Amino acid sequence: MENQYNRPSKDQYYLDLAKSVSQRSTCTKVLLGAVIIRDDQVVATGYVGAPRGTKSSQEHGSCLRREMGIPSGHRYEICRSVHAEQNAIINAARSGTSLLGGDMYIYGELQGDGGILDAFPCFICKKMIINCGLKRVICSLKNGGFKIFTVDEWVDEWRENDIIDDKFQYGIDTKNGTPTVNDKPIKISPELQKKIDESK
After folding, report:
1. Rounded Cα–Cα distance for residues 122 and 151 (Å)
2. Which tens digit of pLDDT belongs to each residue from 136-170?
3. pLDDT > 70: what percent of the chain?
4. Which end of the chain is least crowded, N or C, by CB within 10 Å?
5. In the annotation, is 160 catalytic?
6. Sheet holding 173-175, edge to edge
7. d(CA 89, CA 150)
8. pTM for the full predicted model
9. Is 34 within 8 Å of 42 (Cβ atoms)?
10. Do residues 95 and 44 lie in contact, with contact meaning Cβ atoms separated by under 8 Å?
């Protein structure tokens, strides 16, 4: 007998939870949410947003990094927000919850138009994910699907090659000389454009 119920897989279910979490984001560019699952239970969540008690980019009415012409994927120390993955790990620590052997689900979309992102963690988040002992990371893809990474694969890749050789980097891509994020052109400052031109 054919299954007549359209029940999502557990991976899709937890990714849908991460999508709900992302709606709390205070970034003016993207909505990102992370959910950590251990022993089939939600143990922590996080979204991209300003540190507790500080003023967010939404409250400021602008993105500081965009005003400075810094492209996505670079100079995160000048961002007002803490990444969703970092906030999920921090929230687990605040409650004294071990993440060893858990899975992280990350969902992302562009603020405003709802275009889904390839929600791959940045290098800082990847290093934190490795060190906190998570086992798998499941990321939304702009085509509507998701990609499953095992943290051990990241470790092996970085041992054999180097961090900069990572095949699944979050952030800026350059196609035909135009900086893009998820195939969408981004506006950059004249100063940064000059540096890009000089480096060619």
Report:
1. 14
2. 999 999 999 999 999 999 999 988 887 777 777 66
3. 82
4. N
5. no
6. 173-175, 178-181, 184-185
7. 17
8. 0.82
9. no
10. yes
